[in-house]
């Protein structure tokens, strides 16, 4: 149960801190709003496309491996994000962020449902 709290805390910190800031950071780095809109749209489309393969990945390798891979991808993204002065690097980082998002979505809830007893829900 303690691991669930740790994972939830780490996830909350990354989403709560980085998600609101990345658009502002890129805008201040010289990217225009139209390009940022295209990047955001591509990000959401990639999440849609990666969702089913990430579920199959979770079924094959397990929930914990999926979460670890998600955090590795997220760490790579946010560690290299300040160096995204090139659009190619930015697209690669968005791909790793998208992969992280899709590996996490559904997997964490699946892990919770396996770890927490049914009686704890009521």
Describe the structure in your own words:
- InterPro entries: MFS (IPR011701), MFS_DHA3_Transporter (IPR053160), MFS_dom (IPR020846), MFS_trans_sf (IPR036259).
- About 80% of the residues lie in helices and about 0% in strands.
- The protein is an all-alpha fold.
- The chain has one domain.
- Helix 3 (about 35-60) runs antiparallel to helix 4 and helix 4 packs across helix 6 (about 105-115).
- The longest helix is centred in the middle third of the chain and has 29 residues, at about 35-60.
- The chain starts with a helix and ends in a 7-residue tail after the last helix.
- The model has no long low-confidence stretch (mean pLDDT about 85).
Question: Features of this protein?
Answer:
122 residues; mainly alpha; 6 helices; elongated; MFS; MFS_DHA3_Transporter; transport; MFS_trans_sf; transmembrane
Estimate the mean pLDDT confidence: 83
Alpha-beta classification: mainly alpha
- Which value, in Å, is the CA radius of gyration? 16 Å
Number of spatially distinct domains: 1
Strand tally: 0
- Helix tally equals 6
Distance between the termini: 17 Å
Helix content estimate: over 70%
Low-confidence stretches: none
Q: Strand fraction band?
A: under 5%
Helices and strands, in N-to-C order?
HHHHHH
Shape: elongated
Largest sheet: none
Question: Can you lay out the helices and strands and say which pair or pack?
Answer:
Layout (H helix, E strand, L loop, with lengths): L1 H17 L3 H7 L4 H29 L1 H18 L6 H18 L2 H9 L7
In short:
It is a multi-pass membrane protein. The chain has 122 residues and is mainly α.
């Amino acid at each position: 149960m303690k691991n669930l709290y740790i994972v939830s805390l780490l996830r909350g910190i990354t989403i709560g801190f980085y998600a609101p800031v990345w658009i502002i950071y890129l805008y201040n780095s010289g990217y225009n709003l139209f390009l940022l809109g295209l990047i955001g749209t591509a990000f959401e489309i990639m999440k849609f496309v990666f969702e089913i393969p990430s579920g199959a990945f979770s079924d094959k390798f397990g929930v914990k491996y999926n979460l670890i891979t998600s955090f590795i991808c997220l760490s790579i993204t946010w560690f290299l994000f300040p160096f995204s002065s090139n659009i190619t690097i930015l697209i690669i980082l968005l791909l790793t962020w998208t992969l992280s998002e899709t590996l996490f979505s559904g997997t964490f809830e699946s892990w919770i449902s396996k770890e927490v007893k049914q009686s704890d829900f009521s």
